Amino acid sequence: MRKVFETVVGLNPNFSFRGKQQTRIETFSDAVFALAITLLVLSSTIPETFEDLWASMRDVIPFAICVALIIVIWYQHYIFFLKYGLQDKVTILLNTILLFVLLVYVYPLKFLARFLSEIYGGIFGIIETDLSRFGEYSHQNLKLLMVNYGLGAFAIFLVFSLMYWRAYKMKSLLDLNSYEIFDTKSSIIANLLMCSVPLLSLIITLIDPWGNFRTTILSGFLYFLYVPIMIVFGRITSKKSRRLLQD
Amino acid sequence: MRKVFETVVGLNPNFSFRGKQQTRIETFSDAVFALAITLLVLSSTIPETFEDLWASMRDVIPFAICVALIIVIWYQHYIFFLKYGLQDKVTILLNTILLFVLLVYVYPLKFLARFLSEIYGGIFGIIETDLSRFGEYSHQNLKLLMVNYGLGAFAIFLVFSLMYWRAYKMKSLLDLNSYEIFDTKSSIIANLLMCSVPLLSLIITLIDPWGNFRTTILSGFLYFLYVPIMIVFGRITSKKSRRLLQD
Amino acid sequence: MRKVFETVVGLNPNFSFRGKQQTRIETFSDAVFALAITLLVLSSTIPETFEDLWASMRDVIPFAICVALIIVIWYQHYIFFLKYGLQDKVTILLNTILLFVLLVYVYPLKFLARFLSEIYGGIFGIIETDLSRFGEYSHQNLKLLMVNYGLGAFAIFLVFSLMYWRAYKMKSLLDLNSYEIFDTKSSIIANLLMCSVPLLSLIITLIDPWGNFRTTILSGFLYFLYVPIMIVFGRITSKKSRRLLQD
Amino acid sequence: MRKVFETVVGLNPNFSFRGKQQTRIETFSDAVFALAITLLVLSSTIPETFEDLWASMRDVIPFAICVALIIVIWYQHYIFFLKYGLQDKVTILLNTILLFVLLVYVYPLKFLARFLSEIYGGIFGIIETDLSRFGEYSHQNLKLLMVNYGLGAFAIFLVFSLMYWRAYKMKSLLDLNSYEIFDTKSSIIANLLMCSVPLLSLIITLIDPWGNFRTTILSGFLYFLYVPIMIVFGRITSKKSRRLLQD
To answer: Motif RxxxFSD motif, which positions (chains A, B, C, D)?
Structure first.
């Protein structure tokens, strides 16, 4: 049954899960995650007329982007607690900060997703872009936007790296074997790497080399660095972990 | 105790459940389903006067229709995870899409239920129909309405069929016996059949043979096809499964 | 450990619980109950000024009445599923109706509690009664109020009696002993008795013997019948159950 | 495994937990706590323009204060039920009162945190203080504010002390050893001490020795007494518990 459980969860069966029994921290966190995605979608006005109904359908793409991002964070949270089952005060404190940052960024994320959908909708000719509804669309505001989301993304992944660092600190008590220790260290580094991209974007935005939209466009596109970083890092770690498992 | 559990759940005792232990995906999904039915009912304005109170009671029938539909989807979700207990990334992705479609359609469903209740309330002489509060009641808007809900229903049942297809793909790992494999394949086909009705309705609406209300009335009544389809399909599968169990 | 569990739950240790393992129906229902009491309190406007803050505190008593009523219903729900652990389609259908009636009555309950608090607050000289904010305060509206809440209370306890009736029907499958069968039958009758009071109040209101406020005052005070009914019924059943346990 | 569980929970491994299996009271309470912190953050208006977005970011500090306070209460709730696993009627009643007080104070807490942030933001020169948006900022209103929050804090910790008193009353049934009895008695006293500070603040506010802002400033700063009280009390109890464990 052990092999089936690990595999049906799609996780690496070489890691023995300490957190199969759901704890209250996870039940509480699941309720907050569920509230976040639900209120993101259902905090809009209720369509009373046909016109309202079609207007509300315009938000489907932005909502899809936001829900996907939140679920990615939920999945990281789910894997962490499945692996270690930690419930100590430090983990609860870090978990609270994670949930707080998530909640603070639900509505700003909705704003950003609508804003980007309006821009890309126009670029791909799907809709007629009307950015005026977002208020004063200035370079200063775009810079603040990038700083705002850079801080949010940075905080989320920093907290995850601290949570994995916490698990690493309790490695003897959790009785982690050498493979599991390596896996934990890789998670710390992976999340620190995920932190570094928004940090870089933040720095570029604050330096603001061109003093105009080019800065914010660059700091926006920097987020595509996630793809190569994760591919390269994934290759390095999987090579090492295969060697560890053979030993 | 095994026989009692299967039977108290009202499920076919020949299927051994892999998902008796609740997982976080189910806890998270239950919170979203609970939010969906609650916000559907409680997102209306709070009655401050007697007049508000009676006006709010007018929504009871539309709400009952919506809550019943959402619970039918919840029950399908409940049975799927009880049967297979899957928690891998693909299942989580499909589950996220299912919850997202559900949330996007909560308010539109409320609109549709109110709109249909207004029409049928008038036909049965219960209330004086006043469709003006729904905005411009044109053939074009009704067509968009049918397309909108056709897509929603199509998406929900397509995701369920993909989830059962996922379970079918993991049949050796889940150690499904021949009866359970047959049951899983039947579920894939059942959900594909459930997909086909809204698809048919969508196509009729887009072709719009009459160019007036007759098209939307026909595409609406097509949904009654569910009854004969499910009865016939149910008979076929139960005959085959009895034969399988005897063998 | 068995004795401790029953006793820490404060339940009659002679009844062996079939539902100790939480099911998804209970997790889903708990989320709806939690949403009901939370939205009842938090659906008010957010205090932005000191004046708003004091105005919001005026609602504490009405909210306390509503939350107490909802928790009484939650406790009944909790005991039922703890006793029988049923998860079949009929139980899920009855549970859905129960949750639906609960949700439909959250805001009307808030209205009624505010209305009664305004009246009794004035009678006891705590506040200056101002019923004008509730709209047209006529005999006709009060009658509708009594009919409205009579139907709600009647529906809640009727569903509970049907749920216990369902458990009674599955007594052999649930392997209930004679004491447990007696306990289940008592629960059916108790809930039917709880149904009878709102039914009586409804009938009196519809007959409306005096054609003025005296009718609604009488149909309101009929609810105090709950106390003697439950005391007398409690005595009868505990006598019989003691005899059953001795045999 | 026992030692690991206690330690990963960060609790004193000398206390054997009776409540490892999550009960419905905890699932229900977790949903209410999750709703409290989510609605606290997400009950604000949704930012539609850049200006709204920056205005909404101004609330981050006040929200952080409120979420931290609510999580401290959640942690106390979590530890209580983990230790004793009680589910009897008295515990459910006390738990309901706790959740009710929590819900009633979510919005007032949001008001207080915004108010204090405005004042301290001005003192530390971070923002330009504008207290006019809070309505009439008089000595009378500040007194009512201190009374209001004094009652809330008093009620929360009084309920916790009653819950621990309930566990103490069931010590033989829960089979508590001498160390666990001492730990339970300490929790009663600790919560009564936590009650005493808001009580003292309340009394000072009602006596109102200076008849001006000095009274409310004093009654506000009294809350800093929590720190020395908890340090001294912590030292006394840990000395006694070490001696008990040695015996």
So the answer is: 24-30
